[in-house]
Amino acid sequence: MEFEKSLTRLTKIVDKLEKGEVPLEESLSLFEEGMNLLAGLKEYLSAAETKIQKLIKDSEGKIGTDEYTELSGGVEGKD
Q1: Closest C-alpha among 35, 56, 38, 55 to residue 1
Q2: How far is CA 75 from CA 43, 55, 68, 70, in A?
Q3: Which one of 11, 57, 61, 65 has the fewest CB atoms closer than 10 angstroms to its CB?
């Protein structure tokens, strides 16, 4: 999936649906396509976020990985 291409397509779908000038059958088809694109985009962003959260530099400047809870100080889920 190309993130930018999918995001552009989703934006065009939203614009069409917001105008309300699309017949019902086409609206349903566009809505379904939009929901599929949205799910793919969320999945991509989630994977990217996880990767970023895990990448850290160690004391020697080398990039390594670590658990998210250690990076966040274990505050996940606290208010």
Answers
A1: 38
A2: 23, 18, 10, 9
A3: 61
Q: Does position 78 have pLDDT exceeding 80, yes or no?
A: no
What's this model's pTM, rounded to 2 decimal places? Answer: 0.67
pLDDT of 29 over the 90 cut:
yes
User: What 8-state DSSP symbol labels residue 57?
Assistant: E
CA 12 from chain centre, in angstroms, equals 17
Q: What are phi and psi of 57, to 5 degrees?
A: -100, 135
Q: How far apart are CA 13 and CA 17, in angstroms?
A: 6
Give the model confidence (pLDDT) of 54-76 as tens digits: 786 555 566 666 655 444 444 44
